[in-house]
Each structure stands twice: as structure tokens, then as C-alpha cells.
Amino acid sequence: MAATTGPASRRVSVFPSPQELGPALAQLVLERAAAAGGGGRRFSVGLSGGSLVEILARDLPPAVASAAVSPAGWLLAFCDERLVPPEHPDSTAGAYKAQLLPRLPVPGPRVLTAPPRAAPRRRRRRVFPGEDIPVFDLLVLGVGPDGHTGSLFPGHPLLQEKEKIVAAITDSPKPPPERITLTLPVLNAARMVVFVATGESKAAVLKVWTQTVRRLNKNPRCLGQGMSDREGSVNRRSVLGTVCGSLLLTAQPRRRSLSPTAHFGRRRGKPPSRRSCPASLRAAALVPGRVGSQGADHPRRETFRLVEPTAGRPRVTVTAAPAA
Ligand SMILES: O=C1O[C@H](COP(=O)(O)O)[C@@H](O)[C@H](O)[C@H]1O
């Protein structure tokens, strides 16, 4: 049973274990698939790798079977991929092909083996007709202990990417160093984004994330303490740059008039110049409403969050649970 707080559009649910989180996540996938079908769309879903593969491989197939749903119309892509041979244990596509796909009914989903930007322009057009930026119905993203999501790492210049929809990274702090990843513009364009974090190693980053979002929601003009802390083993501002940039996915059109001062506040002296204020943070200041999380401040608790705007898309979900 999940402990859930926050308005329906921005819900935080805490699951006692991944065993309980998994079925809820599977239900969410089916709900989004049904919503896409109801809207006359093919269901497009992007999946991260890492620990998520096991959760989905365990809990999605039984949910699909008991709902008697056919995944034949689904389009499945990967939020990021490590550039290793498909049979390598680090390959995200390889892991899904080995663990999840054989457990789904036949015919299974259409699988994009590389994110659309890596494909020729003609093929991208066919996959996401009429969309400059692919609008996924659902992105299921993991969160690393350092706050990375997909292969978007805290403090990495890739967070500033605005043009590409898929970008290469050759210096990933987490091995393997060479990867490709969906960029923030794609994350921000999705109809719903689910962040899944399990295990104690994620507790610290989720705590910072939650606290910052609360601060932002109370007073979007001040990111508060820690945000100008450039020292220490963890650059909290950068961590939040990733995390809050992701939370932007929820949000509203940007207000052009917002200045960097507005985002960093004046409490810690002179605000940084616009250049030193990451776009993801500028955007994060516009996250509306309240994100609550029961117990999420406790370092040993992790959270399941569902964040969605009151009107229309996109919606953001974060899921987490202590490790089994
Ligand atoms: O390197 C990666 O890490 C994240 C988080 O992985 P996890 O095993 O800690 O859940 C993952 O979401 C991403 O796809 C992957 O490339």
C-alpha cells in the first residue's frame, strides 16, 4: 500500500518495498496506454535502464496478461543507452530484450533500438509524425544516487542542450563513459514522466530534491540554502539542476521576464550572472503548486511521487521505495 500525499496532480506515494511499487508502476503504464488508445494515439513509452528493468520485467507482464491488453500497438524506446554491444550486461536494450520483451504477449511492442535522433531524419518523421520534439505518452526514468536521470548528469553541459532530442555523452561519470540519452527538451515534452528510485543509495538525493521543490513551491523567488553551495563532494546546485530540470516537465510556459536573481534569491549575497544560472534551474523556478511527500525527509525513506499539471500535459511521476 502506498502512502500518498499532495493533490491528485502532484501526488507523492511511498511504497514499503519495490515489490509493492512494481505493480503500481505497471498499472500506471497500462492506464497511460489506455489513455493514449482512447485518444486515438499509438502508445509511446520510453524506458530507462538500470534497476528499473528488473521491476518492469517482473511486474508489467502479469499486469498486461490480467488486463488482456495487447502491446502490439505500443512504441517502446529507451530513455538512454550505454554504447556497448547489445549482449553486454550494461546494454539497456539488451536487458529489456532478455528480460521483459519475451514475457509480453506476441505480437509485442515495436521497439526503437536507438532513440529517434540517432535515426535518419526520414525515419524520425515516420516514428513521430509532425512532431519536432517527440512527445512520449510516458517516460519511465530512473534516478541515480548522484541525481542523474537517463544519462543526464548533475553539472554536465548536456543539461543545457536545447536543440538536440538525443545527445551523445562520452564522459559519463558513471561507467560506461559513452552513452546516448534523451535530452531535457524531450523529457519536458512528454505527457507524463515517471521517476523511479529504489534503494537506500537514492535517499539523499530524493531528500534534497523534495526539500528544494517544497522551497520553490513556497517561494519560487528563492531557492534557499544550499543552492549556491559550489563546494563539497556533491554539488547540490547541480544535483538540483538535473532534478528540478526534470520537474520542469510538469510545468507552465516560461515567463521570459524572470531574472536569475529571482531564482537564486538574495540571501546568499550577490546572485550569479544569467550565464551561471543553468537553464534547468531557471526553468525549475516555474514549477507550480505543491509537491508533498510524506516521510520523504527521512533519509531512510524514499518516495513515490506523481506530479501532473491541473490542465493538460505534461505529468510527472516519481516512484521510489526502499530496496527489498
Ligand atoms: O546509468 C544509469 O543509471 C540510471 C539509474 O540506474 P539504477 O540502476 O540506479 O536504477 C538509469 O536510470 C539509467 O537508465 C542508466 O543508464
Bound molecules: the ligand O=C1O[C@H](COP(=O)(O)O)[C@@H](O)[C@H](O)[C@H]1O
Beta-strand residue percentage: 15-25%
Mean pLDDT: 65
CATH top level assignment: Alpha Beta
Largest sheet: 9 strands, mixed
CATH topology grouping: Rossmann fold
**Helix/strand structural class:** alpha/beta
| Shape, principal axes of CA atoms | globular
What does it look like?
This protein is an alpha/beta fold and 324 residues long. α1 (18-38) crosses α2 and α6 (203-218) packs across α7 (236-247). β3 (44-47), α2 and β4 (75-78) form a beta-alpha-beta unit. The radius of gyration is 19 Å and the shape is globular. The protein has one domain (11-226, 237-251): Rossmann fold. It is built from nine helices and twelve strands.
Descriptors:
324 residues, disordered N terminus, alpha/beta, 12 strands, Rossmann fold, binds the ligand O=C1O[C@H](COP(=O)(O)O)[C@@H](O)[C@H](O)[C@H]1O
